[in-house]
Amino acid sequence: FPVTIGLVEEDIQFEKHLETWIFEDMSLVSPSLHRIGRQVNLEGKFMDILAIEEPGVWVICEIKKTPLYRDSIAQAIDYVARFDLLNLQDLRELLSRHESQQSESAKSLIERALDREKDGESRDVRVVLAGVGVKEDLNQIVNFLAEKYSFPISISAYSAVAAPGDGRDIVTGK
Q1: Interhelix angle for 88-96 vs 104-118, to 10°?
Q2: Residue 163 CB contacts under 8 Å (≥ 6 apart), including other chains
Q3: b or e along 87-124 (b: 16 or more beta carbons within 10 Å of the residue's beta carbon)?
Q4: Does the predicted TM-score (pTM) go above 0.90?
Q5: pLDDT, tens digit (0-9, with 9 covering 90-100), for 53-105
């Protein structure tokens, strides 16, 4: 007789678990992302993940083990503002502290982005909010910012489930 085990929703025990899963496999958020660093220090505030994508767009990932809520966007915008204020030399220093975590493709994109800035182009930054679920009011704010002001922001929501008595989290994307 086949045995059916029902999966039950479960909280992820620590935010760092979700952060680790995403950092180790950036395709969980977007197939185009290349990791740069984790727990990136911006003047004493720690950005969860910094990544980069073609053609050299910096991506700030804010991760929550709980449903994403309104405060998540404020925190991410704070990181964007701090990151945008870095001069080119400070940005290079920040990136060098995370160099061991970067793939060759990430390093190539980083150099391309830095060269563009050196040539006078503006810094392109986008935000990804990732969490276990999303509060409806956050969707409304994100849609408003993206549609009305072209603010580059997206949401990546997951569900955490476990088999009863298993003790292991399974995360699925939505």
Answers
A1: 170
A2: 5, 6, 7, 8
A3: eeeebeebbeebeeebeeebeebbeebbeebeeeeebb
A4: no
A5: 999 999 999 999 888 988 999 999 999 999 999 999 999 999 999 999 999 99
